[in-house]
């Protein structure tokens, strides 16, 4: 497992692997790896096969953090991350861990950016203006450095995944975007690098996010089709935790991310919707989501 | 010389050529090819050598035209363009000529765009808002389809060239941007696909653009360092043509495109400045520029 720190060296390794006929997978991360990340890495290995080439990028991207957010505090644990990758059994070929000056050679902020209009303006984008422009711009840089055939992202960042799918297809990268289901603790909490910020009491109360989503999913499975009813059900759950402060609790179309009125099997995404929540638990902002499907199966997942 | 119309087929050809160890060059054009374009193509062939792979893209990109501009009228002459490329002696390997739906698979306008802040806001960007966002976005798509090692652009579109240089380096495409000197008619008029719009009298008067630039270059060569004096000299020349209506006549730093006060050998671009003009001659908007160098050589070119 090589650790590569320059774009040029990463491109050279990727080009050589491509010309050897290997399939290349990229898993972009900000490090602080947990079992959710390792599930992405193992999924990538399954996708490209034993002869394939798997790169995990580790880069805490400054341009996706807003003023007052946790860029400085964000955990940087490269040695532990490398050990976790070695121990994962996924056979990682390369860790791409550039410095900021390698990704932003003209300094910050960059002049050149990649944007996906509209899809980044609501949900998390409403409370984190510019966040998704930072994400799309850095993922473009990572794509161009690592030249993968496919890239694996976690479904936990559902809005990010939808935006990156759109960007990747619309700009014509020739890269397959693969989403991987959320990995959860036994009590339902979605794994996140930010969970380590939680005090024991906050950690206990943080389960209201997934409880809210499971309530919405259950109601949809029972035939509830009103998005407002589902939103209220989620809000009621989150209100049960005194240390949780809701940012949003939304029902949106799974592909366009536009707010839904009614769950409709003939909707824009063929009856797929996201129930998505964001809440501060203490000072820590957490997000989570589940997909609701109506129509053929009629069940949420 | 293949004509390729899909992104997937173009990527496959480029990948095969790369893995054969060939150097790939791309010359992005909107067609209506003239001797200026053919000079770019021959220059690309010289750069990649006889074993290299040269692609000319021909795509009239809708997103870089504003309302009321000449998108519908822009000449589309694919058969003649192909003949001109065959006759050029440059040994073009591929013409990439996609339909709009291939470049914009989700329709128009696209949600995903690439932008270079600031550099696209003045000069031509001031009178053509959004133009350079269209250029950077389509060149990104062309880069991703054609996967070249180098891309050749004409210096006539100096602002475009500076913006694309910045974009290409800052996003980390791993592509060398090559600028090629302006090709001119004997009377000084820069070659342009839009020159065919000119009536004979307009064509005669259109020489004031290059005359204005040569006047500025001459004055700078004689030691004039005041940008305002050079601007006035250019305006005076253009005013001599009754059918010419000036859009801008500017002296800017060659890399940053910021307006200059004084030509300074220690300036941001090491003493390189652009004298740049845009003017309507009749209904046709024409642009032209020359590079002014102060310092080591002290001469304009």
UniProtKB/TrEMBL annotation, chains A, B:
Enzyme class: ligase
Binding site for (R)-pantoate: 64, 160
Claim: Transport is one of the keywords in the record: no
Entry EC no(s): 6.3.2.1
Record GO biological process: pantothenate biosynthetic process
Domain of life: Bacteria
GO CC terms, sorted: cytosol
Main location: cytoplasm
One GO MF term: ATP binding
Pathway of action: Cofactor biosynthesis; (R)-pantothenate biosynthesis; (R)-pantothenate from (R)-pantoate and beta-alanine: step 1/1
Family recorded in the similarity comment: Belongs to the pantothenate synthetase family.
Quaternary structure (record): Homodimer.
Function: Catalyzes the condensation of pantoate with beta-alanine in an ATP-dependent reaction via a pantoyl-adenylate intermediate.
Protein name: Pantothenate synthetase
Organism (species): Rubricoccus marinus
